[in-house]
Write a structure and sequence with these properties.
Order of helices and strands: HHHEHEHEHHHHHHEEHHEHH
CATH superfamily of the largest domain: SGNH hydrolase
Shape: globular
CATH architecture of the largest domain: 3-Layer(aba) Sandwich
Largest sheet: 4 strands, parallel
Number of strands: 6
Radius of gyration: 23 Å
CATH topology of the largest domain: Rossmann fold
Number of helices: 15
Amino acid sequence: MKKITALYLKILLFAALLAAFITGTFVLSLRVPALSRTLSGLLRSTEYADAETLAPLFEKVRSTEEKPILLVGDSIANQLLQGPGSRNPEVLVATSTAALMLPGQYLLIREYLEAHPEAEEVILMVHPMAMVRTWDIEWSYRYMIGTALETDTMQYLDEETIRQMESVFGRAAIRPLPYRVIKEFPPFRKLFYSYIYQHRTAYAQSSPFEISDLYLSKISDLCREKGVTFTLYASPSSTYFADQIRTLEPDYAQTQSSGRFPDYLSGIYLYPKEWSEDGSHLSGAYADAGHLEQVLREAFPGSRLLEILDLP
């Protein structure tokens, strides 16, 4: 009996030492990037090492340099607006990616308005297909949820939005400490995403514009409260998406946003799909600065946007 008890004690002691070693190694890996990379290689999770978010963009809009005009939008807007927008000293260009989603754009605009009492105008350019993005299991955790957690802006999201995120990723995963563990240690990221892929599905919206409609209203109301002009533009699109955009028109007509922005889906500039390698962004010779500016001129003739960008 004593031998069995001694054996159990040895097993417990070994388990405790092993747990302490694993915990210590994990904590140390959070502080020592080289160790984290080594462990990631040993545990075959190096492909999960890239976990950067859009937090630097929030720091950019929080700067106190006077910039009365803000340009935000998806990656198509980023391709088109970065060049001409940066030439105007009154313009702050903070375009990003569709994965930030409309809730993220709302948070970004909110942070800009808090930091810039001189703000006069906000322009948002988003492709229609980005408008119908939901909480997917691939990109929204990193670019939207991760960014909100790192910038301490999750608190400004609607309670229903939080419930939607929890339904996909779980309550713990959208809290700061578990998120940091998932982000900073690639093997845990691998385990987390493997679980999500196998056991969860993207959030099913009640209508294609459920999420974006709520946050377009929030952006519009916020800008009005601040006395700031808000304008929404549809990003130019390749003809690859033409049919999908047309099918969205009846659903958009049922949204609150259609009353505020009735022309959003009307007259979208469509360019040949041959101009784009990925179906979304201009590429090759069609992506040079001169051609991008020509696309802007043709897509938004006579608009305030062209005036801001100084594109006659």
